[in-house]
Amino acid sequence: MARQKLSEVILEDLKKKILTGEYRTNQKLPTERELANYYDTSRIPVREALRQLADAGIVRTSAGSGTVVISSGSTLSDTSYGTPFMENVTLLKETIILRRLIESQAAREAAQNRSADDIKELQNALFDSINQIRKLKAKENNSFFEADAWFHKAIAKASHNQLLVDCLDAIPYITANHQFLSLKYTTPRDEVVSYHTQIYENILDMNGERAYESMYNHLYRVETLMMNHKQEVGGLGGEDGI
Fold first, then answer.
1. Taking every annotated instance into account, which residue ranges of this chain make up the domain HTH gntR-type (predicted)?
2. What tens-digit pLDDT sequence spans the chain (242 residues)?
3. Helices 43-55 and 6-19 sit at what angle, rounded to 10 degrees?
4. Cβ distance 60 to 54 under 8 Å?
5. Nearest-CA neighbor of 103 among 54, 51, 148?
6. What fold is seen in the domain 82-229?
7. Residues contacting 190, CB < 8 A, separation 6+
8. Among 56, 74, 158, 168, which is least packed, fewest CB within 10 Å?
9. Closest C-alpha to 221, from 240, 194, 241
10. Which long-range contacts (CB under 8 A, 24 or more apart) does 56-59 make?
11. With contact defined as beta carbons under 8 Å apart, do 70 and 25 qualify?
12. Domain 4-67 falls in which CATH fold?
């Protein structure tokens, strides 16, 4: 039997701690150094475990802010949608429709209910997206996926509707897969930032209907590009993607 990699051991333990509520939504995880000391290892396997958690939409890592849990423990599962999810056109389409319904309403309510602190967080998430674009173009290490997830999560939080927040928490793997597919294979990053800017400005202006419309159009564009790309190349994981 193959020996389990240390990063996998750390990953499973962190997922268990999040699942049981030891680390809760919006709580910051210990630093890489602290986790390395806890698991009596170097920071390399810790960093890999945190990267996998971020890719799954469970945590968000940003420079200067550390790593924060962004999905509630009660909604975690050991089963990711993975490749079958990417290849199932019906499931892919149904889940993006679900996200449109949830997140468009979240944007509308965020415009109506947002506080000054909410606007600051949305602005920081938007600026982070722009900064990650710059790093991407310069071929530097970047965290654009995390920045994108942060922005969408901040909108739900700004709605001050806990049910909407819980709905997004309940589908972390769906959201993560959409972000991975749309950003890696179809949607230009500059276009994503443009949509995010429109959504942010409408929320800032407290224009609920325009915020709803801009979020709806953003996710409809994601759906259209993913579906078109899948029809063209017969899948979403080929080398023809951008």
1. 4-72
2. 345 688 888 988 898 788 767 888 788 999 999 999 999 999 999 999 998 888 777 888 887 778 998 865 444 444 443 444 445 667 777 878 888 999 999 999 999 999 999 999 999 999 988 888 787 777 776 677 777 888 998 999 999 999 988 887 776 555 655 655 555 555 567 788 899 999 999 999 999 999 999 999 999 988 887 777 666 545 444 333 32
3. 50
4. yes
5. 148
6. Four Helix Bundle (Hemerythrin (Met), subunit A) (1.20.120)
7. 133
8. 74
9. 194
10. 56/80, 56/172, 56/173, 56/176, 57/149, 57/172, 57/173, 57/175, 57/176, 57/179, 58/15, 58/18, 58/172, 59/29
11. yes
12. Arc Repressor Mutant, subunit A (1.10.10)
Contact 39, 7 (CB under 8 A): no
Tokens of 223: 């759906």
In the numeric block, which tokens belong to residue 15? 């997922």
d(CA 23, CA 14): 8
- Within its chain, how far is the Cα of 202 from the centroid? 21
Residues 6 or more apart whose Cβ sits within 8 Å of residue 176: 55, 56, 57, 145, 149
Q: What is the CA radius of gyration of the chain?
A: 18
Q: Which residue has the tokens 């230009």?
A: 188
For the chain, the domains span 4-67, 82-229
Q: Give me the residue label for tokens 């029809």.
A: 231
The three-class DSSP label of residue 68 is strand
pTM for the predicted model, two decimal places = 0.62
Structure tokens at 47: 């960093």
Do residues 203 and 109 touch, judged by C-beta distance below 8 A? no
